Amino acid sequence: MKTKQCISIGCLAAFWVAGATIIAAMPHPRTDVYDGWRLGTQAWSFNRFTFFEAVDKTRDLGLNWIQAYPGQRIAPDIDAQMGFDLPDAIREQIKSKLAEANVSIVAFGVVGVPRDEPQARRLFEFAKAMGIEVIVSEPAEDQFDLIDKLCQEYEIKLVVHNHPKPSYYWNPDTVLKVIEGRSKWVGACTDVGHWVRSGLDPIDCLKKLKGRINDVHIKEIDTNLGHDVVWGTAQGRVKGILEELHRQGYRGTFAIEYEHSWDNNVPLIRQCIAYYNKVAATLNPTGWKELFAPDLSNADFEPGSWEFKDGVLELKGGGDLWTKAKYSDFVLDFDFKVGPRSNSGIFLRAANHEWLPWVEVQIGDTYGQDISRHICGALFDVQAPTVNAVKPAGQWNRMTIWAQGPKIKVALNNQVIVDVNLNDWTEAGKNPDGSRNKFDIAYKDLPRSGFLGFQDHRDGSHVWYRNLKIKEL
Q1: Potential cystine with 348: which of 89, 297, 359, 363 (Cβ 3.0-4.6 Å)?
Q2: Beta strands in 192-328, from DSSP E residues, in sequence order
Q3: Is the pTM value of this prediction over 0.85?
Q4: What is the rounded distance in angstroms from the CA atom of residue 111 to the CA atom of residue 114?
Q5: pLDDT tens track for 302-341
Q6: End-to-end CA distance of the chain
Q7: Is residue 291 part of a domain?
Q8: Whether residues 231 and 345 fall in one domain
Q9: Are residues 47 and 190 in the same domain?
Q10: Is residue 167 a part of any domain in this protein?
């Protein structure tokens, strides 16, 4: 039985967390589709769950950013609530959870700023210590002299948030009045859904705040139903909102705040993300895209052997799955989990739909096994990983594969485990260290372009993939 930690935390805060030190330690890439925008979740969307569960849901959705809110329980076995008075030990547990999930916090709010300067400094010192870039708040007008001073001193932004009418800042004119004449560190957090609830046009409101927007809370409100719906449906405001922010040159974070279907809104949020990606990728693309279409129409496989449902690609049994497109230089990023004793792999740059002699990154249930050229993360029979980083069967792992010219690199669960140059494989059947392999070609002579394949040994293995994203280099 786990011992619960009981701590009473009195705090008004909700926050985005993303320590720069955490980001720097992660070898996995950020896969946002718009160059300069970061799409994440507001943990309020998951207020029926703990913060750690909200982090897991965020990663399930393939996102790297989360915004927390005040009062959310930290975890089932940590009886403390989210807030800036959290003790160091709990903060470190939060950082560890975020690092493991590859999710970061970048802002903190909506939080009340204490009027007393020493107390206000505690808020800013907490933000600095956690790597928080933005504090979201709704301060009184007479607090802004102190706030601007602290923002400049700590180099942390504070943004004024708008709750719906009759809150003080429901109208962007009021927000503009209090930030006018302030430094660049003081700006606006625009909640576009709350503007709709207040009877305002969100695009008109965004135009008024051009140049002062440093954070966006995004939602699609159906004014006929009176609640959140999937983006791009109902009155369809999100597309225009994104286009306006692009026109303004906005750079920053979007927090998804889905305030409906509380017990199971992940499938609905997943649809929102798909719509956002479709629109945002046409505006200023990074090059990241989904590897497979939802209906697998861009893949070759035997009917019934694989299923793509609710964002998860599952091996059902009956044959391999191959991309129809060929790839040369690329980064492939994804999550996977395996069943007990399951064995699979991902083939790189295959000239045909056969297993040999192409580079295969091993995927399998090898937790706790000795390092070899056949455990998870290895290049099958040619290169062992530096560590056995796979998690036990049934747990999600994250893997990134880089292929550029002759160089192949693999990261698994925040560790780079393979980094090789295929030009070092100069003899057929022989590895650079003198050990033998089963291939009748020197790996330096393998093609530098080909299909990607997902292996089925037809032995009852169970494998699941999600968040399969690729960027061609």
Answers
A1: 359
A2: 213-218, 221-222, 227-228, 252-256, 289-290, 299-301, 306-309, 312-315, 321-323
A3: yes
A4: 9
A5: 999 999 999 999 999 999 999 999 999 999 999 999 999 9
A6: 49
A7: no
A8: no
A9: yes
A10: yes
